[in-house]
Amino acid sequence: MSSAVARRNSSFGSSASTAPLSPAAPGVHNAALVTALVLGYIPSPSSGTFSLGPLTLHMYGLMLLLGIAACIWLTGRRWVSWGGDWDLVFRVALWGVVFGVIGARLYHDLTSWNQDPAIHAHWYGFAAVWDGGLGVWGGIAAGVAAGAVVVHRSGNSVRLMMDAVAPGLLLAQAIGRWGNYWNQELYGRPTSLPWALRIDAAHQNGILTKYQSQGQFGYYQPTFLYEFIWDLIGVGVLLWIDRRFTLRRPALFALYVIWYTTFRTFEEILRIDPSNYFLHMRVNFWVSLGIWLIAVIFFVWWQFFHAPTSEREARPRPVPTGPRMAVPKSRVR
């Protein structure tokens, strides 16, 4: 491990580079972490795509799909246990995902138009989500708004559904961060820590020159891994709080926002990917801090000072379905 650290230290701020370590083959997430303990760093995948005949599988998109599936599964289990049905969960997921992706990409395009060269690489670059570039702020806002419309039209409680989906959203964000790993993007400052993420020179374009390595590889803070762990812990915390305490809906959703933005604000200090700046800090730092402050104020007011309305909180109810075909039992053989 000491030799690996020595190589990392020599790759920054020196024109003479040592011979790079041989690339480690990318494996599953647990294998990558075990490898980090042996090599003194986390190896990055050589490619973010796989070819299956004429098809090209983008691992970034696959991670997003796995995150969405996990969110639907956890939300559905919670909603059904409260007396709801899966049909509404699937309908919310359909419209929430569509508008969530649109909102996330729109936020990224608006805030990174001059920083992300992939947007201008092709005529369709503004919509090339498989190359990365989804702003969580736009995605959550648009997805929740679309889902709220679906829930309201079904006659169910929007506030109750927001609390049902909160842990699932955090789980989806945790899994989705592995897409950044496969794309070798959104990493943090250079480091010599034994769990540093190795990034090849081709994926250091766009960051400041002082952060770029002189050799073939650089070693950086694995912010994707930090957020993955933080979000997974948050899922357990939210589920425990929901079982242990009586919350006024949608207080759990507010806690989800508080939990996520608490770390995201710190993460923005570590990240070095291209960004607009305001008062010497990344724009998303201020966005995260502002959302955290609003969520804290809302939670304290709503949970402890807000007078409950006289209207009884609606319980989940099945979405009306059409008539079903009946088969006489005597005809079944």
How far apart the termini lie comes to 70 Å
Which stretches are low in confidence, meaning pLDDT under 50 for 5 or more residues running? 14-26, 322-333
Instruction: Summarize the amount of helix as a percent range.
Output: 40-55%
Q: Please summarize the sheet with the most strands.
A: 3 strands, mixed
Order of strands across the widest beta sheet?
Answer: 1-4-5
Mean pLDDT: 84
SSE pattern:
HHEEEHHHHHEEHHEEH
Helix tally equals 10
Assess the beta-strand content as a share of residues.
5-15%
CA radius of gyration: 23 Å
Shape assignment: globular
Count of β-strands: 7
Derived from helix and strand composition plus strand pairing, the structural class reads mainly alpha
Written overview of the protein:
By secondary structure, the protein is mainly alpha-helical. It has a domain at 44-187 and 222-247. It has helices at 2-10, 29-39, 59-81, 86-111, 136-154, 158-176, 178-183, 223-244, 251-270, 283-305; strands spanning 41-42, 49-52, 55-58, 196-200, 217-220, 277-278, 281-282. The strands form 3 sheets. The protein has a 3-stranded mixed beta sheet with strand order 1-4-5. Helix 3 crosses helix 4, helix 8 (223-244) packs antiparallel against helix 9 and helix 9 (251-270) packs antiparallel against helix 10 (283-305).
